User: Fold this.
Amino acid sequence: MSDLDRLERLRGVQVARSILEKAFSLQLTIVGPEGPLAHARGGVMSGSSEVCRTALFTREGFQRCDAFYRALAADGAAGERARPCHLGLASIAVPVEVGDGVVAHVVASGFVATALQGCAPADPATLATALRELDPSLVDPSQPVRKLPVVRGDREQVVRSILRTAAEEIAEHVDDERRRLRARAGTSPGAWGIVGTSPRMREVFELLRRVASSDAAVLITGESGTGKELVARALHDHGPRTGKPFVAQSCGAVPDDVLESTLFGHVRGAFSGAVRSGEGLFGAAHGGTLFLDEVAEMSPAMQVKLLRVLSDGSYLPVGDTRPRTSDVRVITATHRDLAAMVQRGEFRQDLYYRLHVIPIALPPLRDRTGDLPLLVEHFLRDADSEIMPTRVSASAWRCLERYQWPGNVRELRAEIDRWAVTAAGEPEIGPEHLSPALRDAGGYAGQSGGEAAAAAASGQGSLQAAVDGLERAILVRGLERTGGNRTRLARELQISRTTLNERIKKFGLE
Assistant:
């Protein structure tokens, strides 16, 4: 498990630790393969009580405590466990499960339990004797024993819920880190300069490989923001015309006279304001590639002029009587259904066949969500911001994956640019940093359980609101994980189905 120190800074862990300290006088401990995090760093745990602190700051007590936690970490069995520590005090350990294994435990320990299965209530006299053996300088070891935190039966479930929330946060973080490492090899634009490894994009790359060396006309179709110009440039850069000009022009919402002059050029005096001749894009792109986006928006008159230059390579600048010729590869694109427009008489059939020699259909982002981690990683690295976090929380990921992305990759890029402002200085990007539409898609329209808990931890909300928020978050995640199977979820949470139904009803999750 890499960079354990970062786990301490996770928001969910900080909130859970704050609630345990304020409500129960308990210490949350993250236990990795090398024991408690503080010990792995070469320090000493702070301890939940004076008894624990006394034991920890003696050589033998520290060794016994460390051995207890190491044994707990070495037990890779899944499932929550309650067990006594070396002093006989109770502990509850919740495993952090990622994939098929346990990578860490979240533990609350050093308390007296009144009804905890697996942990008999500690005997005060025995505790006092054990404490005096560790530190003979203690005048009255029974005094710190009397101050030990006590967790009664009904409160035990609350402690478990808080530990589960922290464990889930850590598991999501570790899983996300692993996913990022797996994806890192694919985050840099590959041979085509386009990020993506999904099956749909692999089909596009295979088609690009086949047609790049050709001069055949290519029609790229896809929704706005799918990267049509990026594909056109990739074809140019990997074809025989690489090193020659690549010129792009959108035909959408451009008046005929302006578009005609832009494409074919004009002579001096051809129209008001034409004080000098203009070459036009067909001339500027000579020897290279001309990319015409939104070609479906061309008027019928402009369609005729484009058909002529595609047919024989000749065109007539505005105001000129001498035809010019240009050797260009024309690549066109549209977000509309040109075949349907031909059927309706809105687009010339002969021009359609000229353009539609090699069709390339780009998938919308919602159909290639497997590429989201690669795209996000690429854009975050491209942003190169020192104040914007580079980690996206699992909760935020759920929002990204459930959102439909009507603006496709362009919208994703704009969303990530937004994070530079909304998440500046934060340790990670959470749902609260996303735009409202994404939060709605992930079910975070209102204040989340984590936000309620954070408010309570900072003194801005009640403890009950924090506990309720955590419980609601646990139920939401559990229902998602089990596909709504309440019997299974009740078994996982170690509560009755009746109790689960009551909690679901309380939080409006029916």
The first strand starts at residue 27 and ends at 32. The chain has four domains: 5-184, 212-362, 368-444, 447-510.
